[in-house]
Amino acid sequence: MEYLESNYEKWRDEGVLVLKNFFSSDELVKIQADFKRLYGETPNSLSHYNGNHPGSDSDRREQFEFIDTLPFEASVELNLFSLHPKLISLSEGLLGSDDVRLYQSHTWAKFSGRANYNQVLHCDFNNHTLTVPSTEVRSGSVNYLLYLSDVTEEDGPFCYVSKKDSNKILGHRCLAVNKTNYGALVEKEKTVVAPAGTVIAYTLDTFHRGTDLIGSNSYRYSMSISYKSNGNDSIGFHVWQVTPARNWSPIINNASPSQLSCLGIPKPGSRFWNKTTIKQTKERWPQWKSDPYIESI
Ligand SMILES: O=C(O)CCC(=O)C(=O)O
Ligand SMILES: [Fe+2]
Question: How far is the CA of 266 from the centre of ligand 2 (A)?
Answer without folding.
Answer: 31
